[in-house]
Design goal:
Length: about 500
């Protein structure tokens, strides 16, 4: 432990963020890394607890607590406090393939589980993680690690999101020849075409893809398995296949008027905006400048739509959520070290408040119908407010409040009400078994019902987080490696 009294002497700081009113003028990243001096001070706040819940990644009462990939946080906190940056980097990379992604976009369950968070603001773990890896790249310490020997085994990975990239990285380092197939025109999955560039600069994603290519991984883009090539062909050509296809099939509204022009799935908006920025187009295909924007769905995808609409200078933006506003304090269902489940101001809401003077979120709102004009264009949403009440059976229910009907002007409506499961193309003509719209595979084996075919990430667990996709990619890679070694022994 670097400084035993650090947690009493120093306050938690966030890495510098560009002020909301300035940053909404562009799509560049709004966050920076800690300076070296800040990094030391923030590292010194770690208490090096005997039982560091921050790195455990366990489930407590059904809720995940701590870092899912078991980053050995107290160790790198101590190393940065001592200024041993390179050692901190090596320690970080032992557990996390891509800290430059998690250090920018992870919701940091580690910080909820930090012991200091019981009574004080948690150690700034995520900011420290980002700073270690960013410094590593700046100093030129991250260089291609080209495997010295090759096993002769060939692996196909379908999907290049964080699960696919992690599995590809680990299996390539094991000496296997890895090919990644991606239906989009650029690799990265939701790192590329989901999470907006102000949170995660696309050059950061492409830098990693370039590194992986230099290390020997082959990327084939614009190739959809199930359409351009079949799963059966891959099984024939490769010794093992891992399906990391995500769970990007979006839920749709089933409401009167939902066929109106201007009702747009959130992912269509987010991905087309990023693509047009990357392609250098002057105007995005969906541009909400001067328009009244409504977002249906109170989650993070909806928040990203709010932030994107603000950058395009929308006239107004409101986000509807079905659930009540979270409280300011932990309740009994969210005791430490689990996620506190409390009210937060995401980056998008800070920005909306700075521009309009108001948090854009409306809680406990149910959309009842969509109004359109004679040309079929959306003009308004009709809503009703709800109550969340506990029934006699002990379960919570939503109840409409009579007389709370309201009409909201809308030029564009983004639908961000979650994801149903995998896109089904990859299953075309196969006997691949699904379960609740996800690919069926156990958490321990990652093996599907088809011999030699594995799955990991959102495709197996449903829409989740980058850090869980990395964990699943790592564990699936281990299982595939064992499978290939066994196969070799059997031969
Ligand atoms: C808008 C949005 C914002 C998010 N923000 C955050 C965040 O801030 N922090 C966080 O931790 N998580 C966030 N998430 C969740 C996170 O991005 C996902 O959990 C994670 O990317 C899942 O990784 P994955 O590799 O399993 O799948 P994905 O990232 O979905 O990648 C799957 C890939 O497979 C490809 N594919 C699918 N079918 C085929 C096929 N048949 N042939 C070839 N390729 C195919 C897809 O094109 C895609 O590239 C966000 C999600 C969304 C939608
Ligand atoms: S990956 Fe996420 S949970 Fe793990 S240390 Fe980083 S920010 Fe925390």
């Amino acid at each position: 432990m670097g400084k035993p009294t650090g947690f009493m002497e120093y306050k938690r700081e966030k890495p510098h963020e560009e002020p909301p009113k300035k940053r909404i003028k562009h799509f560049g990243e709004y966050g920076e890394r800690f300076t070296d001096e800040q990094l030391k001070v923030q590292g010194a706040r770690c208490m090096d607890c005997g039982t560091p819940f921050c790195h455990m990644g366990i489930e407590i009462r059904g809720v995940a607590a701590g870092c899912p990939i078991q980053n050995v946080i107290p160790e790198w906190n101590d190393l940065v406090y001592r200024g041993q940056w390179k050692d901190a980097l090596d320690r970080l990379l032992m557990t996390n393939n891509f800290p430059e992604f998690t250090g920018r976009v992870c919701p940091a369950p580690c910080e909820s589980s930090c012991t200091l968070a019981i009574s004080e603001p948690a150690v700034a773990i995520k900011g420290i993680e980002r700073s270690i890896i960013d410094k590593g790249f700046e100093e030129g310490w991250i260089t291609p690690r080209i495997p010295k020997t090759r096993t002769g085994k060939k692996i196909a990975i379908v999907g290049s999101g964080p699960a696919g990239l992690t599995a590809a990285d680990d299996l390539n380092q094991d000496g296997h020849q890895v090919t990644v197939f991606e239906r989009d025109d650029r690799p990265g999955g939701l790192l590329m075409y989901g999470i907006p560039s102000m949170k995660l600069d696309k050059d950061v994603v492409l830098r990693r893809v370039h590194l992986l290519s230099q290390e020997g991984i082959q990327f084939i883009v614009n190739c959809e398995i199930g359409k351009d090539r079949t799963l059966d062909e891959l099984k024939e050509e490769f010794d093992a296949v891992i399906l990391c296809v995500g769970a990007q099939r979006q839920r749709v509204l089933h409401l009167p008027g939902d066929d109106a022009d201007g009702i747009i799935p959130a992912m269509t908006y987010l991905s087309s905006t990023t693509k047009s920025l990357l392609d250098g187009e002057k105007k995005a295909p969906i541009d909400v400048k001067g328009k009244h924007v409504l977002v249906i769905g109170g989650g993070d995808t909806g928040a990203d739509c709010v932030a994107t609409a603000l950058r395009q200078k929308c006239k107004s933006v409101v986000q509807f959520g079905k659930h009540p506003r979270l409280g300011n304090d932990r309740d009994n269902d969210h005791m430490w070290p689990a996620d506190p489940g409390i009210f937060k101001m995401d980056y998008a809401y800070e920005e909306a408040e700075a521009v309009t003077g108001k948090d854009p979120r409306e809680y406990l709102i149910q959309t009842k119908r969509i109004e359109k004009d004679a040309s079929g264009k959306v003009t308004a949403l009709h809503t009703i407010e709800m109550d969340k009440v506990m029934g006699e059976d002990g379960f919570h229910y939503f109840r409409e409040i009579p007389g709370s009907e309201r009409v909201w002007l809308a030029d564009v409506v983004f639908v961000a009400i979650g994801f149903e499961g995998i896109d089904l193309e990859v299953t075309e003509g196969t006997d691949l078994e699904l379960s609740s719209n996800r690919i069926r595979a156990s958490r321990t084996s990652y093996a599907t019902n088809l011999p030699g075919v594995f799955t990991a990430g959102d495709a197996r667990r449903g829409q989740s987080l980058v850090v869980w996709a990395i964990k699943e990619g790592k564990e699936a890679a281990q299982k595939v490696n064992t499978y290939l070694v066994k196969e070799k022994v059997a031969i």
